[in-house]
Amino acid sequence: MSDSTGPIVERQDEATGGVYRVRINGHLAEMTFSRAGDSLIIIEHTAVPEDLRGQRVGNLLLEKAIADARAGGFKIFALCPFAAAQFRRHPEYRDVLST
């Protein structure tokens, strides 16, 4: 999905976790997470189809999770290698990082 400003990332919540999703040009990218209480999510996996790689789609998913963490007052533990690498590369994300 997208609007005039670009793709829209949606979050689907379940009792124990959830997923961030974005569909671009018919391709679905996802970032899964689990909940560890009310104040922590654990990003477990990021899946971006080959056709979308190199287009910052994974970053788009992570940035939505970070925005949600800031708005919701929770922290993120990055178990996913992609998410962990982005937290290392972007010090501006670290305010929501749980170590």
Describe the structure in your own words.
- It is a single chain.
- The chain has 2 helices and 7 strands; from the N terminus they run E-E-E-E-E-E-H-E-H.
- By secondary structure, the protein is an alpha+beta fold.
- It has a 5-stranded mixed beta sheet with strand order 3-4-5-6-7. A two-stranded antiparallel sheet has the order 1-2.
- The longest helix is centred in the middle third of the chain and has 16 residues, at 57-72.
Short summary of the structure?
The chain is an alpha+beta fold. It has two helices and seven strands.
Question: What composes the largest sheet?
Answer: 5 strands, mixed
Strand arrangement within the widest β-sheet reads 3-4-5-6-7
Helical/strand content category: alpha+beta
Strand content: 35-45%
Distance between the termini: 33 Å
Helix count from the secondary structure assignment:
2
> Unreliable runs, pLDDT <50, ≥5 residues?
none
Helix content: 25-40%
List key phrases describing it.
about 100 residues; alpha+beta; five-stranded mixed sheet; two-stranded antiparallel sheet; 2 helices; 7 strands; about 35% strand
